[in-house]
Amino acid sequence: MLSKDRYLESFGTDADALLELAVVQPDAPIPHCGEWVAADLVAHLCGVWSFIEHHVRGRATERTGSMQPSDLTGAALFAHAREVSARLSSALAGVEPTESVWSWTADTTGGFYLRRVAQETAVHLWDVRAALGVVEPLAADIARDGIDELADTTFPNLLDRGVPEPVGSLHLHCTDTEGEWTLAVADGVVEVVRAHAKGDVAIKGNASDLDLVLWERVPLDSGDLQVFGNHDVARSWTALTR
What does DSSP say about strands 201-205 and 170-174: parallel, antiparallel, or unpaired? Predict the structure, then answer.
């Protein structure tokens, strides 16, 4: 994991950038988020951020409430989003990564939320930028950490919830920073080897593209990625987050 300060910095910067872009074109379609437009994405984030802020600030031991998108519109929605973002930043600044906090995964620590908030906001900022034709890669350290989160927390949680298991093994190789992973599932458990190894399929590219392909933001046939081996195996892994 990255440091607490890095997660807070990433969230604060990305949340501000996302809201500044989305308020300019609130009706811009977000291709990777179903039928949402930018304002829908902001309303969704208000629900997510409020839900997390409530649980982190109270050091919750169980789930209370649900992630409900904001029903505000126009300028009121964006003003609310800035308020919720500021409250969440404050709550996250006050929690230590090792503190116990309920979560919907096996990782019930403050560190889970520090990472999750930074990662979700980074990917959704990419969504808004892409929708407006301003495509910028994720920061390499955030993207590499995003792959770690998928391997350690997100994929296991999805399998626990009954998402169909991927087939075969997947090897990922970063070209712009250190990072290699080989992922496989055995007896319902995601096994992760962080070293060079041979998989049924290998995907090689920069950390941002590797993270984004696992979130189905970047296609496998992107010219920035090299895919070696069984493409169907790769698709079974990228389909997990669908």
Answer: parallel
Residue with tokens 């399998």: 159
pLDDT tens by residue, 223-240: 889 999 999 999 999 999
- Our CA angle for 56, 52, 69, nearest 5°, is 155
Q: pTM of the full predicted structure?
A: 0.96
How far apart (Å, rounded) are the C-alpha atoms in residues 188 and 161?
Answer: 11
Residue 184's alpha-carbon distances to 22, 63, 152, 197, 206, in angstroms, are 38, 31, 12, 12, 21
Domains and CATH numbers, the chain: 4-131 (1.20.120.450), 140-241 (3.30.1050.10)
pLDDT tier, 173 (very low <50, low <70, confident <90, very high otherwise): very high
